[in-house]
Write a structure and sequence with these properties.
The complex is a heterotetramer. By secondary structure, chain A is of the alpha/beta class. Among the domains of chain A are: 148 residues, Response regulator (Rossmann fold), CATH 3.40.50; 129 residues, Response regulator (Rossmann fold, 3-Layer(aba) Sandwich). In chain A, strands 3-2-4-5-6-13 form a 6-stranded parallel beta sheet, with helices on both faces. A 3-stranded parallel beta sheet of chain A has the order 8-7-9, with helices on both faces. In chain A, strands 10-11-14 form a 3-stranded mixed beta sheet, covered by helices on one side. The radius of gyration of chain A is 23 Å and the shape is globular. Chain C is of the alpha/beta class. Chain C has 2 domains: 234 residues, 3-Layer(aba) Sandwich (Rossmann fold); 238 residues, P-loop containing nucleotide triphosphate hydrolases (Rossmann fold, 3-Layer(aba) Sandwich), CATH 3.40.50. Chain C contains 17 helices and 22 strands. In chain D, strands 1-2 form a two-stranded antiparallel sheet. The two termini of chain D are 31 Å apart. Classes of the chains: A alpha/beta, B mainly alpha, C alpha/beta, D mainly alpha. Chains A and D meet through helix 1, strand 3, helix 4 and helix 5 of A and helix 5, helix 6, helix 7, helix 8 and helix 9 of D.
Chain lengths: 406, 369, 503, 353
């Protein structure tokens, strides 16, 4: 036992001494000046009914997004990826390149661990191809590792790129790294945000609250009062998804609908299907299904079919297989989108910045919703099942082959 | 499946001349190392009955079995590998790759017959197993590493090939096996599960199965008895790979194309097998118990889900139960050996040579008897 | 300095030591001889604290000890060199020597001191071929043994027990060991030297104690005795042991297996013929190459030179499967790790061969197996009992049954009755003879001369990988011993005149 | 890294000696009798190769920035792998590291948000010790196979995390973030942390009795016991040491990420990756052979590979294929000498197969 104590003692001592050393002897610091605001939050998410409100919920932002959803965007109506919602333009002349040809564009990608990101990356590459002036386009893939993405960002900002596009893997944890990069070159953040406004522009669609609300309102409208709602979420703690749910929660709490279950599917269709099946046995019937993303929508639909029940009103996403099922099975459905065409915008933004043109501080993109009315427009036959319809890529060179379609 | 009468041993003790052995002890012996898992399964099924009286209505019970089918098949395959003293960490990757590849195949040949595609998958799975097996047996790479590498390779290759998302849709015909029902009530998955289960039992009763276990027990003794150790072990890997491919067909059928169809299956399968009282390091345990272990896991998941337990605690409970079950087994085992071993004859070989098992020195634990 | 008095020990009522006494002087080599099962190792284990005696006392330098585990004996200054070394292959000599007793300075292992001390110890025994930094796995077996000895010396032992130290050694290494032993005694150690090889015993020891059937027979000064006397003392037993009658001439049939000029790393120019109905015995000391011969015939460690025929057809098996197909069976010496899959049922073990190698089409049906097991007179709690829970004798019967199931033509037995109780022994002997009668060719390797003499129709004596002599049925133990213990010098090499033996 | 590179190899002659006689070195590499030398030469080879390829592609590989990046990427995995090698040396295994890291970052960040840095450090290390003890006691006490024991522990931790955290939590003060971002000259501070921890572990495994007993236990538990080694206790301590290293990794990641993330350890698959690195470093999975120096080599190889892939912006999926091949190939080479075992039967040296 003494042996153990000695060792532990030694290790601790060593560790402490080391840290002390670190704090004292550090000469240069890349660390940003002030510390990022806390994203602290904990607590179970699956209590009775809708559970307590997510710690991510911000009333102000919620209201803002719902307001934005009502706005009509500026810019070419046929190119939603170039549109912007009431932009506050910001000057970028400081980044203007003497000769904006031979641009090297760099992109630190969180990863391609889901089809949405894969389609998105294809969009971005295609967009880059459209611009001859971009001579080099470097993509570093962090494979979902925050630590690696931080290093990637450091590496890229040390590499002499002209502009850096970042799609953060985690909001809170990437903030310091992005702050670092801001000092060195123009940074364009998109998709997920970071907790700093040092980026020249932050490209993203209206956002999760609007997404969640659209879906929830649809159910409130279609499902009879007291109807049983099943909410399927991907996984806890993912901000973009948390917002979707918390908005939906607000809507459901106001309505007379009864949310009987809130379950996490890990994005695994098999698990989703099992959950729905179990829910059916447990609650006899389900009158509506709310989803925070489309990955498992089809599985849910099938669960009802396999149980020999009619598919109730269901919300999905603009994923090909869901749209297909929607049309074939003539579902009562809605597909709010978190459009993949937003992957095109950062490239456009970067070029504008390097040309010294004004860009919005926060480039808010519209967030169209697929409804029964416009379903036909978005459902392109021959596209792969995991394709995302709202890619804004139909008119791009290489379509549909490069996107895996026929 | 878990009925004692199906374990190989029962048949033997019946045929064998055990005049003194009372039926009770005979059944106990027949259940062999599986006793804890059968108890566990019984308890869980009972708990399910209490939680949800409707659970045992034919179709809801069948849907339970159908859901368990892939894991059961994986467990059966994993058992073959574990019982001869190896590991197969690549099964999860095979499932994922299988689903993705199937979709990709249909992308290129939309009207391929489902039997052809299924066959291709099974062969491919077997091939992956063959490679793992040969690397492990011939190159003497610990199977833990071999299959870990194989896992990386398969996942990487599948997605690299399909550019991350497969292009085709899985047609209804192909999905029948995982989704459809025979005569409108009996899910094909259940049939497949029964077939695979029976096949596994038959394999283990066959000469091959017996030599396989003997190899896991002591490959030196086996080799001196003329067993082609390398071949036997490799075949085990092949079967495991094929089983994983079959599981892929079921999973793909059940829930369609997904980029993460097989995530975590490798550990679930190993857990199931160990839960069934099979000793890591080989030589002990019955395939029926291993499959019962798979059912137990699935029952556990369902129960926790029905209980409304958040997915969170699910894994905690799983962890505790696994450790407890195995620990219990280990305890029984050592006690028993103390009582029964005649003096002079020490405990069996500490670390069977050729055991690629990471902690060979501890592997005498882990089996009740 | 060391005295053991009236030590008795029994396992499950079977008495293996009947108040044995023995004493040891500083600087003395005290040889302990006796046949297998005479109780040598048990006595040694008692001394080492691995067994606690039922009665009797151990006194070291006047203080009485009762050891309950090896650590205490070690602490008291008694070191044991087991036949199987407790060394770590991939660690250096120094690390092995001080394993568990590493010297430390300020909490850290003092390598320098460790290696210095090891070097010193090696120097003290004039061992030049080993440096403290060498990896044990890079040493020859003899050197590894030296490391074991140094390991004992490091915990400055007074008494060193060596159990068959020369068993794993080649002849030239034996000489080295002898030299080492002398140096150790020169340093005042008392050495308890257990060996079969009378040559060594007479080279090294000052006194010899003979044990037989767990009883102390005699202790004499080596100078006052002769190998023949010792052998007689070891052997002179009450001639109650029953062995089945030998083969009559007309029972010995055609040639089943021949070897001419067979050799490999361990064996040299082996010429051997096995006939149907005949039991051929192989005598020899441990390490003489008897086991290697059996394994060579069985293709496990195949001949690399020479010709071999099985059942008249030329075949030099390179894998056990070939041998098995040709009808050769080997009952190995190491039952636990080579003979049985211990955690499998009796039945599965019995069927293992026929399942692995399709010898005669289908393996036997359950009924036949049951018949087989009855035939070998197996006593078990049913065929589904695990082999590990059987007694040594019954385990051996299972092994035999396993081979009978394959219907062999040639049966090779390596120490068929090692660790087998008396009753089972007789059963196995009878069985072996029956099998011979049915026309099998049988080869028996045994360290127990009486068994060998009692069973064999012919006896080959092996030494240093050669067949050095052939003796007719009923050859005397002395003549065998003389041939076997002759070692490198062929002085005593001539076969002694056959005399009425123990059978 | 140089400090580590020049450290005597766990088994066989240290690199210095081999370089003395070239022939010997060549032989020892060909038979790869000494994996440590082997893996560092491999690291060198990969670096040179990468440099050639990248330069051919018009990139620049051996820049300071890149070197720093490579070192930086070694840290997290390095810390975990160093701990992992302790348990593997002892013949055990730890699959719970990934979740322990995640939990560690969360605990660290939250404690720092409320309490002070020191409290947080102590809290994390305490957590680590607790988990390590639990693992060790389950393995030795309950005789549960280490694979299952630590896998079970992983599940337990996972449940705990998912039940108590809904996402990134806590906040790491700037003062502590310096651990993740500061550089002394060109070298990141965290690299010194890795070197320090590795050095301590190297000292423990090579220079203390405990370390000797760890090798003994992993090499041949029976022989070790016969020689009076308390094997059970040794295994437990090894697990504790491993968890402590993991705790250090968690602290580093917390400093780097500025917050705790539930997927900090799992997304990066630290459990399997660390084992891969250890084995790549020539440590036998069965225990008793290898050591920290080799492990660092393995980590370095993986990091360099990653960097090369980055430079050539290789498809991330293809990376996995290469990694898989590399790992298997490496172990296959190490396994080769064992096919003609030099040690006689009397010696049951711990081997990887």
């Amino acid at each position: 036992m003494t042996l153990i104590r000695n060792l532990r003692g030694r290790a601790l001592a060593a560790g402490a001494a080391l840290l002390a050393a670190v704090l004292v002897t550090s000469c240069t610091s890349d660390a940003p000046a002030e510390s990022p605001p806390a994203a602290s939050g904990s607590g179970s998410t699956a209590d009775a009914g809708t559970g307590k409100q997510s710690t991510f919920f911000e009333q102000a932002e919620y209201d803002r997004q719902l307001a934005l959803a009502g706005e009509t965007p500026e810019g070419p109506a046929d190119k939603p990826w170039e549109q912007m919602l009431n932009p506050q333009m910001t000057d970028t002349s400081q980044y203007k390149m003497a000769d904006p040809s031979g641009i090297e564009l760099c992109f630190s990608n969180a990863g391609v661990f889901n089809p949405w990101r894969q389609v998105g990356l294809k969009n971005m590459r295609a967009e880059v191809k459209l611009h001859k002036e971009i001579t080099k386009f470097t993509v570093l893939d962090a494979q979902g590792k925050d630590d690696k993405q931080i290093s990637d960002i450091q590496e890229l900002s040390a590499r002499g790129c002209d502009a850096l596009i970042v799609s953060p893997n985690t909001t809170a944890t990437l903030t310091p790294a992005v702050k670092q990069a801001c000092g060195k070159l123009p940074v364009i953040v998109f998709d997920r945000g970071v907790e700093t406004d040092c980026a020249v522009t932050f490209v993203n669609p209206i956002g999760g609250y609007a997404y969640g609300a659209v879906a929830a309102d649809f159910l409130v409208e279609k499902v009879k009062p007291k109807g049983k709602i099943l909410a399927l979420r991907i996984s806890p703690g993912v901000d973009v998804l948390e917002t979707r749910w918390s908005a939906a929660k607000v809507a459901f709490d106001k309505s007379e609908l009864d949310v009987v279950d809130v379950k996490f599917t890990d994005g695994d269709p098999a698990k989703a299907k099992s959950i729905v099946t179990d829910a059916l046995t447990r609650h006899g019937d389900i009158d509506g299904v709310w989803m925070d993303s489309g990955a498992t929508a089809v599985a849910a639909v099938e669960a009802f079919e396999d149980a020999g029940k009619d598919v109730p009103p269901i919300t999905g996403e603009d994923q090909q297989d869901f749209l297909q099922a929607w049309q074939d099975k003539d579902l009562t459905a809605i597909a709010p989108a978190y459009p993949t065409f937003q992957w095109r915008t950062p490239v456009i933004a970067a070029l504008d910045i390097l040309k010294g043109q004004k860009v919005p501080k926060e480039w808010k993109l519209p967030q169209p919703t697929i409804t029964q009315e416009n379903l036909a427009d978005y459902l392109k036959p021959g596209m792969p099942p995991l394709h995302y319809a709202m890619c804004g890529c139909e008119s791009m060179p290489g379509f549909p082959k490069d996107w895996g379609g026929k | 499946m878990s009925a004692p009468t199906e374990t190989p041993d029962t048949a033997k003790s019946a045929a064998g001349k055990a005049p003194t052995a009372a039926t009770g002890t005979r059944i106990v012996r027949a259940l062999g190392t599986g006793i804890p898992v059968y108890l566990l399964l019984a308890v869980l099924l009972l708990a399910l009955l209490i939680t949800d009286p409707g659970f045992y209505e034919p179709d809801s019970f069948l849907s339970f079995v159908k859901r368990a089918a892939p894991l059961v098949i994986l467990a059966a395959g994993q058992y073959l590998v574990i019982v001869c003293g190896e590991f197969d960490l690549s099964v999860g990757a095979i499932v994922t790759a299988g689903v993705v590849v199937a979709a990709e195949l249909y992308g290129s040949f939309p009207d391929a017959h489902w039997l052809v595609v299924t066959a291709i998958l099974l062969v491919a799975g077997g091939l992956a197993g063959l490679i793992s097996g040969l690397i492990t047996t011939v190159l003497r790479v610990p199977s833990f590493i071999t299959t870990l590498g194989m896992m990386l390779i398969l996942e990487g290759a599948a997605f690299f090939w399909t550019g991350g998302s497969p292009q085709g849709v899985l047609p209804t015909a192909f999905r029948q096996l995982g989704r459809g029902t025979a005569f409108g009530w009996l899910p094909w998955a259940v049939v497949a599960c029964l077939v695979a289960g029976t096949a596994a039992v038959l394999v283990m009763r066959s000469d091959f199965g017996r030599t396989l276990v003997a190899t896991g027990d002591s490959d030196r003794a086996a080799a001196l008895a003329g067993v082609r150790v390398i071949r036997v072990r490799t075949v085990a890997f092949i079967l495991s790979g094929a089983a994983a491919a079959l599981a892929a067909v079921l999973v793909g059928g059940f829930s369609g194309v997904s980029a993460q169809a097989g995530r975590g299956y490798e550990f679930e399968a190993i857990t199931a097998v160990v839960l069934g009282g099979v000793v890591l390091g080989g030589g002990r345990g019955s395939v029926v118990a291993a499959m019962a272990g798979a059912f137990s896991l699935q029952a556990l998941f369902t129960l926790l889900n029905l209980q409304g337990v958040s997915g969170a605690l699910e894994s905690t409970v799983q962890g505790v139960i696994v450790i407890a079950a195995v620990g219990l087994g280990a305890a029984d085992w050592s006690r028993l050996r103390h009582r029964r071993t005649p003096p002079g004859s020490g405990p069996p070989d500490r670390t069977p040579p050729g055991t690629t098992h990471p902690t060979g020195t501890h592997n005498s634990g882990g089996t009740p008897s | 300095m060391l005295t053991m008095q009236g030590v008795s020990k029994s396992f499950l009522g079977v008495r293996v030591l009947h108040d044995v006494g023995l004493d040891l002087q500083p600087g003395e080599v005290h040889a302990l001889v006796g046949e297998n099962g005479a109780g040598k190792s048990t006595l040694m284990k008692v001394l080492a604290g691995e067994h606690t005696p039922d009665t009797g006392s151990i006194t070291l330098d006047g203080t009485a000890h009762t050891f309950s585990h090896p650590g205490q004996a070690q602490a008291a200054g008694i070191g044991i060199i087991h036949q199987e070394f407790a060394l770590l292959a991939h660690r250096t000599v120094a690390e092995n020597v001080f394993l568990g007793r590493e010297p430390t300075r300020r909490g850290l292992v003092d390598r320098a001191a460790m290696e210095r001390r090891t070097a010193e110890l090696l120097a003290e025994i004039d061992e030049t071929g080993i440096t403290p930094r060498t990896l044990v796995r890079d040493l020859s077996v003899a050197r590894q043994q030296t490391v074991e000895i140094v390991k004992a010396l490091a915990s400055d032992v007074r008494v060193l027990v060596m159990d068959e130290p020369t068993a794993p050694l080649a002849e030239h290494e034996v000489a080295l060991l002898s030299a080492l032993v002398r140096r150790l005694t020169a340093r005042g150690l008392g050495i308890l030297y257990i060996s079969h090889r009378l040559k060594e015993v007479f080279d090294l020891s000052t006194r010899v104690t003979v044990l037989k059937d767990g009883r102390h027979v005699t202790t004499v000064r080596t100078a006052d005795t002769t190998p023949d006397d010792i052998v007689r003392a070891m052997v002179g037993r009450d001639l109650t042991a029953y062995y089945p009658p030998r083969a009559r001439h007309d029972e010995i049939g055609e040639v089943r297996l021949t070897v001419t000029g067979g050799g490999n790393a361990r064996l040299r120019d082996i010429d051997l013929t096995l006939r149907a109905g005949e039991v051929v015995g192989i005598a020899g000391l441990q390490g003489a190459g008897r086991t290697s011969l059996a394994r060579a015939l069985f293709g496990a460690a195949p001949f690399t030179t020479g010709a071999m025929t099985v059942g008249g057809k030329p075949l030099r098996p390179s894998r056990p499967r070939q041998a098995i197909r040709a009808g050769i069976a080997l009952v190995t010496e190491d039952r636990k790790s080579e003979g049985l899959a211990l955690r499998q049922s009796v039945r599965d073990n019995a069927l293992l061969v026929t399942r692995a190698v399709a010898v005669r089409g289908r393996p036997p049906a359950g009924r036949e197996v049951t018949a087989l097991l009855e035939r070998v007179r197996l006593q078990s709690r049913g065929e589904d009992q695990q082999a590990q829970f059987l007694s040594g004798g019954n385990q051996q019967k299972v092994v035999i049954a396993k081979w009978l199931a394959a219907g062999p033509q040639v049966l090779l037995f390596d120490e068929p009755t090692r660790g087998v109780d008396v009753g089972a022994k007789a059963a196995i002997h009878t069985l072996v003879r029956e099998l011979a009668r049915e026309g099998l060719a049988v080869l028996i390797i045994s360290s127990e001369l009486p068994e060998l003499i009692g069973m064999s129709d012919r006896i080959h004596v092996m030494s240093e990988g050669r067949l050095v002599g052939e003796l007719p049925a009923g050859a005397g133990e002395e003549s065998i011993m003389r041939l076997a213990t002759a070692g490198s010098d062929r002085a005593a090499g001539a076969p002694g005149a056959p005399r009425e033996g123990a059978a | 890294m140089t400090t580590v590179e020049s450290a005597p190899a766990p088994s066989g002659p240290p690199p210095k000696q081999t370089s003395l006689s070239m022939k010997k070195a060549l032989r020892s590499v060909r038979r790869s009798v000494d994996p440590v030398v082997g893996v560092w030469l491999a690291a060198l080879a990969v670096t040179v190769l990468g440099w050639i390829v990248v330069t051919a592609q018009g990139g620049s590989f051996l820049t300071t920035a890149n070197a720093v990046a490579i070192l930086q990427n070694c840290v997290a995995l390095g810390l975990v792998a160093v701990g992992q090698s302790a348990v593997i040396l002892t013949g055990s295994l730890d699959l719970s590291v990934a979740y322990l890291i995640s939990l560690g970052t969360l605990v660290a960040a939250e404690t720092m948000a409320s309490g002070g840095v020191v409290t947080a450090v102590i809290a994390v290390l305490a957590l680590s010790v607790a988990v390590g003890l639990a693992n060790g006691l389950i393995v030795t006490g309950l005789k549960v196979n280490a694979f299952i024991a630590t896998l079970g522990m992983a599940f337990i931790l996972r449940g705990w995390i998912e039940d108590n955290y809904t996402g990134p939590a806590g906040e790491v003060p700037v003062s502590f973030q310096r651990l993740g971002y500061d550089r002394i000259g060109p070298v990141p501070v965290s690299v010194f942390l890795l070197i320090a921890v590795a050095a301590v572990m190297w000292l423990i495994t090579r220079r203390t009795r405990l370390g000797h007993h760890m090798y003994a236990t992993g090499g041949d538990e029976h022989a070790a016991r016969l020689s009076g080694v308390r094997t059970g206790r040794t295994v437990v301590i090894a697990h504790v040491l491993c968890s402590l290293c993991v705790g250090a990794a968690a602290l580093f990641l917390a400093a780097r990420l500025g917050a705790g993330a539930p997927w900090a350890g799992t997304e990066a698959r630290y459990d399997l990756e660390s084992i891969a690195a250890v084995v790549l470093g020539g440590t036998a999975l069965a225990g008793g052979r290898g050591g920290v120096a080799g492990t660092l080599g393995g980590v370095f190889v993986l990091a360099v590979l990653d960097s090369v892939f980055n430079q050539l912006s290789v498809d991330p999926f293809f990376k996995n294929v290469v990694r898989g091949v590399v790992i298997i190939a490496a172990v296959a080479i190490y396994a080769r000498p064992r096919r003609t075992p030099k040690a006689p039967k009397a010696l049951k040296g711990g081997g990887s197969a």
